[in-house]
Amino acid sequence: MNQDTSDSAGLGPSDNAGATVPHSGDGTAASAGAGAADEVAVGAGNPNGGGADGEAADAEGVDPEGVDAEERAQRRRQAAFAGARRRLSRQGARPTVGERIAELAELAGSVTDLDEPADIYGDGVVARLESRVAELLGTEAAAFFPSGTMAQQVALRCWAGRTGNPAVALHPLAHPETHERDALTVVSGLRTVHPTSAPRLPTAGEVRELGEPFGTLMLELPLRDAGFVLPTWEELVEVVEAAREREAVVHFDGARLWETTTHFGRSLQEIAALADSVYVSFYKSLDGFGGAALAGPRQLVDEAVTWRHRYGGQVFQQFPTAVSALIGLERELPRLPSYVEKARFLAAALTDGLAAAGVPWSRVYPEVPHTHQFQVWLPYPARVLTEAAVRQAEETGTSLFQRWFEPGLPGLSMTEVTVSAAGLDWSRAEVGEALRQFLARITAEG
Fold first, then answer.
1. DSSP-derived secondary structure for 179-202
2. Nearest to residue 333, comparing CAs of 421, 230, 201?
């Protein structure tokens, strides 16, 4: 999914993520466009109105210091999650500017020469980052972009010019459709068509049967708003072959491509080799400051660099972001398979714990996570669940879940769980106890 405002440095999502109710055995689902968000976006709205902690605003909705109810609730959430001693990831615990600068200063020397001159318009450490990405993905070249939205806008625009067809086939839950304010059409003059609306990537048959020509097939791997879901490797190969049969090129929205290797059982190079171009993010999984890269054939990347300049992405200096990306590739990338395995462990523990607690309806989705992120659904209002999560963090120092949303049916709420280094040492007993504490607070609040 993905623009660089989606979820910051392992903090989790913050754009208004259109989520999908997990489908039943008949393959149906109710799609919705509510937000699966945490605390990254200042002033992020609560789908239920008012503060997530359930406190009503005063008559004017603003306290004497000029802070409205939602901002007070947001500050409380941030303080609670940041102060938790036990959590599954850095999600929700926004580090301070000083903390991020100190961390960068501590680790920068491990990935770059601190005595070299700072970059100017993409040379130096930025160019080395580009080479490193191309090497990891096995492509001829890669170009650094300040945001994933810009990288994909440029990629799809370039492919439309080369194929002569402005139609892009993608999923209606894909990032350009849900989080970019129609930029593909408004800015780039492209249009979109949908092979399927089911909460999964399209099948080869759906691509073959799409009722009009398209120049590019864009596949978001994983499809975040459907539950971070991926096809099987065989299904992915078949979909790509179907697009080739339609004389279309294939672009991967690989914002979270880094953590797909466990599910596919293939290397990054093998995965990227299926596509004509790939976008990757440096912060969604790698804990970087931001930024993205577009990788593919050198001729395409050279053209993309020209468009990057036209789109305003030729930034004077970006060494802090580039260095943080290199640190992420060095430190976080090798850990991602362990995060995926732990997410599967935790998902199973949560499933068992919810069943044992007798919650009238609950769902961990996917049942076996495809990446290190998954959804949890519970039959309570989002404000009640968010309040329970905040109180648990405040009162016990443990943060199991964070902010909840009602993306579909009222009273049926969803949260996204992200597992990273902080969650690797959680035991099944700890998960069970944390879940018990959380559910107890739901009862008390409800």
1. SSTTHHHHTT--EEE-S--SSSPP
2. 421
| Helix or strand run (H / E) with residue 347 | helix 336-357
Q: What is the pLDDT at residue 167?
A: 98
Q: What is the pLDDT of residues 428-438, one digit of tens each?
A: 999 999 999 99
Parallel, antiparallel or unpaired: strands 141-145 and 249-254: unpaired
Max distance between CA atoms of the chain, in angstroms, equals: 65
Q: What is the C-alpha to C-alpha distance for residues 283 and 288, in angstroms, rounded to an integer?
A: 4
Contact by Cβ (8 Å): 340, 369: yes
Question: What is the pLDDT, as a whole number, of residue 358?
Answer: 94
Which run of H or of E encompasses 395? helix 382-396
Q: Is the pLDDT of residue 267 over 50?
A: yes
pLDDT of residue 96: 87
Pairing verdict, β 249-254 and 216-220: parallel
Sheet arrangement for strand 216-220: 141-145, 292-296, 277-281, 249-254, 216-220, 167-169, 191-193
CA atoms within 13 A on the CB side of 404: 29
Query: For the whole model, what pTM was predicted?
Result: 0.86
